[in-house]
Amino acid sequence: MAKKSTETTDRPKERAFLVGVEIRSEEHLLSLEDSLEELSLLADTAGLVVVGEATQRLDRPYANTYIGSGKVEEIKALVEDCLAEVVIFDNELSPRHLRELEKEFGTAVRIIDRTALILDIFALHANTREGALQVELAQYEYRLPRLTRAWTHLARQAGGGGGRSGSVGGVGLRGPGETQLEVDRREIGRRISNLKSELEKIRAHRSRYRANRRRSQIPVIALVGYTNAGKSTLLNRLSNAGVYVADQLFATLDPTTRRVELPGGQVVLFTDTVGFIQKLPTQLIAAFRATLEEIAEADLVLHIVDITHVNALAQWNAVQLTLKEIGADQIPALTVLNKIDRLPDPQAAMQVLQNFPDALAISALKGQGIDELLALVQKRLYEELLPISVRIPYTEGQLISLFHESGQVERIEHQRGSVMIDGSIPGRYITRYMPFIHSGDLEPEEE
Q1: Is 168 annotated as a binding residue?
Q2: Running DSSP on this structure, what letter comes out for residue 442?
Q3: Binding site annotation covers 228?
Q4: Are 104 and 87 in contact (CB under 8 A)?
Q5: CB-based burial label for 447 (10 Å; 0-12, 13-18, 19+)
Q6: 430: left (phi over 0), alpha (psi -120 to 50) or beta
Q7: pLDDT digit string (tens) for 108-163?
Q8: Of 398, 384, 239, 380, nearest in space to 299 by CA
Q9: I want to staple 115 with a disulfide (CB 3.0 to 4.6 A). Which of 23, 179, 281, 309 is the partner?
Q10: Stretch(es) of the chain classified as CATH 3.40.50.300
């Protein structure tokens, strides 16, 4: 299926044509049409205007151009009619696909994919040195296998560090400047190595910071969710954090942590993290490892969901997949259905609560349900005991003592070098014991 937009008015923005492909053998969180609609929102966030789109369903991608030759010719005609300057594929293109498509469409039209578009948006919103380094690393790792003479169009201006050095249509990807993009593979490889080294230092610093935080025994609650679900709005509501909020994808990128007092007087830390999205580029997950570890080591995860979105459940599943990928799927979690103030009937949110585990409904913007949310957070962290089975080395004597002092020991078995404990502990301590989780019955170690 293909169609041409009725958009004909000249605009200063670059004109983009979208291509969505559904591979029947692959699993899809969103339908082809819904995924393409999301791609349109991404394009708008990147400063492009969408002037047309085309879709195709295939059993498998074509070896050369990903889509069939007939579809290529059809899109070329539509692109010419729409005066489009950039074609964006909703699927990640291999280096070969990219090269062949660039040959087909010629130098007047640029070809990029969803991954390149998301990297561009992240570069736009990276406002700290750490964020800029993470995005630059992800960009280089994406570009390296695709490095050809055709990529020189990406380097008309110097950029990086979150500044807007042109749009996808004009520059391709924000980030490294012209001289960096024209160096050979060895120079890019060296830059990747340097970036990884710098980010490893940041990761080590974060690790030391988290260790100090754990010693202070202040619980950490990570706010996670699909992009534009309302995490930053919720953090502002809870703490007057002043985090930038906008009705667009990836409005904020760099993590923000604020102290919040619970109803019982206990102080906790809420951390707002980067928004997730389906098909989140693996390069970004790897580059943002230090940031995402903030989630993996949280004491409680609040999964924020935009209840007004038609694909709310699919978005919830997309975030769950990413949490599993970063090793945060075992952390105690609450699902928070946000934006009930936008529903014609706010009570309708109650009917869908059963579709989500451990869920409650709120409006972060209007403050509805916030008191109930904080009370539930307090209950999970301080009042509920969670069952757990662990094998703790004797070298971790503090954890063994903590279990006896704050938890309930149901069964204990001393072994050579470690102790097996079956019992329950307060939710705020669960992440401390995660490295020592033992699955199955308590059995003695083999001699």
Answers
A1: no
A2: -
A3: yes
A4: no
A5: exposed
A6: alpha
A7: 999 999 999 998 888 887 777 888 888 888 888 888 888 654 444 344 333 344 44
A8: 380
A9: 281
A10: 217-383
Is 274 a known ligand-binding residue?
yes
CA distances from 181 to 102, 151, 162 (A): 18, 8, 17
Q: Contact, 384 vs 391, CB < 8 A?
A: no
Topology of the domain comprising 2-116: Rossmann fold (3.40.50)
Closest CA to 9 of 41, 46, 51, 42: 51
Would the annotation count 226 as a binding residue? yes
Tell me whether residue 225 is annotated as binding.
yes
State yes or no: 71 annotated in a binding site. Answer: no
CB contact at 8 A, 82 and 52:
yes
Type of residue at 165: S
* pLDDT tens, position by position, 210-235: 677 666 678 899 999 998 899 989 99
The HSE-up count of residue 4 (CA atoms within 13 Å, CB side) is 13
Please check if 365 is assigned to a binding site. Answer: yes
CA 418 vs. chain centroid, Å, equals 37
Establish whether 335 is an annotated binding residue: no
Q: Which residues of 333-372 are buried (b: 16+ CB within 10 A; e: fewer)?
A: bbbbbbbbeeeeebeebeeeeeebeebbbbbbbeebbeee
* Residue type, position 97, single letter: H
Percent of the chain's residues with pLDDT above 70: 81
155 annotated to a ligand binding site: no
Q: Is 324 annotated as a binding residue?
A: no
3-state helix, strand, coil in the chain (%, to 5): 45, 20, 35
Q: How far is it between the farthest Cα atoms of the chain?
A: 78
User: Does the domain made of 217-383 have the CATH classification 3.40.1190.20?
Assistant: no
Residues of each domain in the chain carrying CATH 3.40.50.11060: 2-116
Asked whether residue 201 is marked as a ligand-binding residue, the answer is: no
DSSP classification of residue 381:
I
Q: Could you tell me which residues come within 8 angstroms of residue 10 by beta carbon, excluding any fewer than 6 positions away? A: none
User: How far is Cα 402 from Cα 383, in angstroms, rounded to an integer?
Assistant: 16
Predicted pLDDT of residue 117 = 92
* 364 known member of a binding site: yes
Higher local confidence (pLDDT), 173 or 249: 249
